[in-house]
Hints:
Helix content is 32%, strand content 37%. A hairpin with a 2-residue loop joins strand 2 (26-29) and strand 3. The chain has three helices and six strands. It has helices spanning 6-11, 13-20, 70-82, and strands at 2-3, 26-29, 32-35, 38-46, 49-55, 62-66. Strands 1, 2, 3, 4, 5 and 6 form a six-stranded antiparallel sheet that branches.
Amino acid sequence: MKHAGAAALDRLEPLLAAVRALPGPVEKTRGVFYLKSRAFLHFHEDPAGLFADLRDAQGKDFDRIDVTAEPGREQLLGLVKSRL
């Protein structure tokens, strides 16, 4: 699964804007967010859709969330907020 390209990130722009508005995450490059000095959130694309990798609650690995459609995007935003 490759990292999301510009066209895929364009489709996620409202979600990206919502994450940018939160206190804490810093966007190092478009669609790649860090929390303090650790990777926190980034996006992938493949034929199955768009996916987010979000640092898990223990801070050791990533949870993959399908953000192809709005319900997944809402779920991701709620998880991001809970993990800040």
